[in-house]
Give the backbone structure.
Amino acid sequence: MNLRFVMHNLCQKKLTLKLTNMKSRKLLWAVVLLLSQSSQAAELSSFDEERSKYLSYKDPTRLSYLYNRCAALQLNVAALLSRKKQAQGAKDFEALAQHYMVLSEANEREIDKKRGLKSKDTMKTVHRSVSNVAETYTKRMKSNFAKRGDYIVGDPQLESELAECNLPNEFKKKALAN
């Protein structure tokens, strides 16, 4: 592989890689594509993995993270339905997302109470966390759409998570009892 390194802007020490032959470019794109697919899968651990962490570490923040994941997924679905002019469906998913955020907030307040901390702006913290996870879901769903023409269908993890998150009482029981 013929690679030529060119140093640009010594102060910032940026290294630019210039590929000089077409085969190298194709190889690079193939590697980037493979890495992006494997990293995408790693971005979101399964709910079962998170439940295991919750139990083995006795870490109640894992429970909040699960609630935040459901809220983020529900908000993404609500946005999709809203774009498709399905207002009532979007409203239902937004309400479910709000329910999960309230569960997360209550869990975070309980954590703070046990630690002897005064809860302050807990819902703002939950909103930030949900926003971060929602961004990860959005990227994944856009990638799914580009590959398959559907945001969720054909992605076993998202299909499974959406099915679980659509049943909040069962989800909470499973999260606490596992």
